[in-house]
């Protein structure tokens, strides 16, 4: 399976990410014009992991997103449901405790993490609300969630240009650098179908998280959402 459909069947999404694992980080750097590195730094600042804290990094892929939490002295668990991504991550980062897991059925006990974070993965989960409730379950009272996800540019003229880039320029660029360019057609379609910033904040609140708020990055191309467990 080279490309998942927008109904996001788990086996299709996992197979699609298995197919792009080898060049995933490189392709993302190219397609984002290097902005993924900046966005990862902003996620690390928002999570603000402290020494000794336990951080769950969901949709961690090859584990690259987990390294800042490890450097901060936290105990980080990178978790992903793509075995291909995890194998590539284990090859690159053998020290990380990479864990296979589905965001809607997490293999962890209640209230064990101080912070849960997911970057560019929530929109690939079939049951978004189920995943948000699971993240709430494994977070301790007073703990936090940080979500970094593609969103909706706030300036209308730029939004039009951005949409054109997604649907016209992104697939041919992906063809030149990705091991599975069809996956990036799905990427463009899934970004267009994803709710805007207030929409995701409402989903967080509905799942039981408190004080949801967001901050736009790159004029709203990406939004950084944060909320707390009561």
From TrEMBL:
Keywords linked to the UniProt accession: Menaquinone biosynthesis, Methyltransferase, S-adenosyl-L-methionine, Transferase
InterPro entries: SAM-dependent_MTases_sf, UbiE/COQ5_MeTrFase, UbiE/COQ5_MeTrFase_CS
Domain of life: Bacteria
Binding site for S-adenosyl-L-methionine: 62, 80, 102-103, 119
Entry EC number(s): 2.1.1.163
Enzyme class: transferase
GO molecular function: demethylmenaquinone methyltransferase activity
Keyword Methyltransferase included in the entry's annotation: yes
Reactions that this protein is recorded to catalyse: a 2-demethylmenaquinol + S-adenosyl-L-methionine = a menaquinol + S-adenosyl-L-homocysteine + H(+)
GO biological process: menaquinone biosynthetic process; methylation
SUPFAM superfamilies: S-adenosyl-L-methionine-dependent methyltransferases
Methyltransferase as UniProt keyword: yes
Pathway note: Quinol/quinone metabolism; menaquinone biosynthesis; menaquinol from 1,4-dihydroxy-2-naphthoate: step 2/2
Family: Belongs to the class I-like SAM-binding methyltransferase superfamily. MenG/UbiE family.
PANTHER family referenced in this protein's UniProt entry, alphabetically: 2-METHOXY-6-POLYPRENYL-1,4-BENZOQUINOL METHYLASE, MITOCHONDRIAL, METHYLTRANSFERASE
Function: Methyltransferase required for the conversion of demethylmenaquinol (DMKH2) to menaquinol (MKH2).
Stated name of the protein: Demethylmenaquinone methyltransferase
């Amino acid at each position: 399976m080279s490309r998942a459909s927008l109904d996001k069947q788990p086996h299709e999404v996992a197979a699609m990410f298995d197919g792009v694992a080898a060049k995933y980080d490189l392709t993302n750097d190219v397609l984002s014009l290097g902005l993924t590195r900046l966005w990862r730094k902003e996620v690390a600042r928002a999570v603000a992991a402290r020494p000794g804290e336990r951080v769950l990094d969901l949709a961690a892929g090859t584990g690259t997103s987990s390294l800042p939490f490890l450097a901060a002295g936290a105990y980080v668990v990178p978790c992903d449901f793509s075995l291909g991504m995890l194998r590539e991550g284990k090859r690159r980062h053998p020290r990380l405790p990479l864990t296979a897991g589905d965001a809607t059925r997490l293999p962890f006990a209640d209230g064990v993490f101080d912070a849960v974070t997911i970057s560019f993965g929530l929109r690939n989960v079939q049951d978004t609300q189920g995943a948000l409730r699971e993240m709430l379950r494994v977070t301790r009272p007073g703990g936090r969630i940080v979500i970094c996800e593609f969103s909706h540019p706030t300036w209308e003229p730029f939004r039009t240009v951005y949409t054109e880039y997604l649907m016209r320029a992104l697939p041919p660029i992906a063809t030149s650098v990705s091991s599975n360019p069809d996956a990036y057609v799905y990427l463009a379609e899934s970004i267009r179908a994803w709710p805007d910033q207030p929409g995701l904040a409402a989903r967080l609140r509905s799942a039981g998280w408190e004080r949801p708020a967001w901050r736009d990055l790159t004029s709203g191309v990406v939004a950084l959402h944060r909320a707390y467990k009561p």
